[in-house]
């Protein structure tokens, strides 16, 4: 009987797959909401935030910031993990989706074995579109939420409010190549001529290394000019969808570049902040007088001093804890068992 009760309890979490790339998923939105509601009712939770770099640390910072104001939980163990397998081998340089999925699946397996999370937030657009292709997605009993689905709903809402606006989606090669945002937006009823896409090769790495540097600024200017050339009709307002968590660090620069290239009014749409909403629904703000948040940053690869300094400075205004966790990150070579190199 105890074994059956355990199975039923664990089955409560089984099968939570978010629509992140137009792939059919096993759980309905109602079932997803029920299982996340179960997490919200727990006094203490462990949250695993994953990115293929340090862009998603902004999501950890938002969670910490919200936790101090919401007090939905008595305590949150907030773990940010970098899923990059090798400093010279990023997901966007891998040769196929099969390779990306195999590496990310192994990363997820290793991270969950080490952290034992109650929920996983994929704070990375690239990894969100890779996730449905992983073996992990077919077997996990842990709720997994990807940022692409959150971004699609956010952007669709704004496009319904701004029917004459054009949405420009900026993202990595994998994110734009999989076309997950446009597929999702079309399912939300958004017309094809109301959106366009722009891949930004190597930009995320430049932002992580030197967000204020000339190289990152020049790349944004060039990609904005290319994107402006793809807009199919005249518009007085351009919505800029930031489909890479790194891009939020330089949102002002994207706005400036698009105003220069496309003219008119420019509005930035950054889904990073919206991801924290998953853990803090309306109605749970007064469960406790305060929330104790402990933070860790884990990475299989080493970060440079320049990366740590740059990103810590950008997140510390929202969360000193996230900045401190990055400065004291744990280099964890056995975070997941993928052989270095191609």
How does this structure look, described?
There is one protein chain. The chain is of the alpha/beta class. It folds into two domains: 2-146 and 274-331, Rossmann fold; 149-272, Rossmann fold. It is built from 15 helices and ten strands. It has helices spanning 2-11, 29-40, 57-70, 97-115, 125-130, 135-139, 147-161, 173-178, 180-187, 203-209, 214-228, 251-262, 272-275, 305-315, 320-327; strands at 44-51, 75-82, 119-122, 144-146, 166-171, 195-199, 237-243, 265-269, 292-299, 330-331. The longest helix has 19 residues, at 97-115.
Structure keywords:
342 residues; alpha/beta; Rossmann fold; 2 domains; 6-stranded parallel sheet; 4-stranded parallel sheet; globular; disordered N terminus
Brief overview:
This protein is of the alpha/beta class and 342 residues long. Helices cover 44% and strands 16% of the residues.
CATH topology (fold) name of the largest domain: Rossmann fold
Q: How would you spell out the order of helices and strands?
A: HHEHEHEHHEHEHHEHHEHEHEHHE
Query: Ranges with pLDDT <50 over ≥5 residues?
Result: 1-26
How many runs of DSSP E, i.e. beta strands? 10
Morphology: globular
Mean pLDDT: 87
Largest β sheet strand count, sense and barrel closure: 6 strands, parallel
How many domains in all?
2
Q: What's the CATH first level of the largest domain?
A: Alpha Beta
